[in-house]
Amino acid sequence: MDIVNIVKPIIFIIVAIIVLILVYRFARPYFIKIDTVACFTGAPGTGKDLLGVDYAIAKYRSALREWRIKKFILGKKFNVLKPEFISSIPILLNDNVKKPIFSKQLTLDIIILQVRLPQKSVVYWSDINKSVNQWSYVKPLVKNNIAEFVTQFRHYTKGGYFILNSQSSDLIAKEIRACIGTIYNLIKHNDFLGVVHWITLRRISISESVISVQETKMADNVSNTMRKWLITNPSLRRYDTYAYYGRVADMSYSDSPEHKYMNTNTYIVVPDDDIKTKTGDTSYINKAKKDYWGTIKITLFVIIITIIVMIIFT
Q1: pLDDT tens, 258-287?
Q2: Cα angle vertex 97, ends 121, 21, to 5°?
Q3: Closest CA to 85 of 65, 113, 105
Q4: What's the pLDDT band for 223 if we cut at 50, 70, 90?
Q5: 3-state class of 292 per DSSP?
Q6: Do residues 228 and 190 touch, judged by C-beta distance below 8 A?
């Protein structure tokens, strides 16, 4: 009887958690309110891709669910193409790592308007400033084609979402930056066991030449910041946080000499010569799936031990 009395509440808690997760996954896309063009900025490691990918997938699932309902009701009369998820970095869209379904690649012909996207499609562009910045704006393709792609994105996709990120909004070409209604400036990212994430951020609204920072009522010594909470599956990774590592995979390692004294009298002098970097596209393939399962096992082990300890001492 004692065992039954212990097992019953545990089973109830597990079932309740599963139900809450299912309700959360179904309802969450409808509670995310972002502009057609949304931008996430912040220093490396502050959670730009974590939050941006999460929002983009939520909007894509909402669009896909709406498409499936219409397809079911109207049948063959409904001949609209299924919405697509297009991204500059690979993003896992399903929960099956053995049969993964990834996002489609964001290619040049898409952003320079040589091909069109299905209605309600979602585009996620990570580190947009690497391709489209204030210095590259003089290029005709950036100034005309890509600017039109962004400014008319809502019209051309009939209600799709374009989500992007950059370490700073100032690095993005002005014509494109002007289309961003709200910038989410991420300040700090923390997590607990890779499951619960909390991100400190501030919302910056851009209206023509006026920039205002939304303020919230907090302590007198803290202003214009808020906190966003996320719950993620520790056994599933949607994207590789080091997706561009392949650009340096074939480079030789540094052989820099050690410092010998506590002081130095020289600065690093940058020459006037145009020296190209040795980074580039390689055949490097991230084996992170195998490595990541090691992290998953450790995380699950910690969670199981925590539950056992709680059961013993309660």
Answers
A1: 666 667 776 666 677 766 777 776 666 655
A2: 70
A3: 105
A4: very low
A5: helix
A6: no
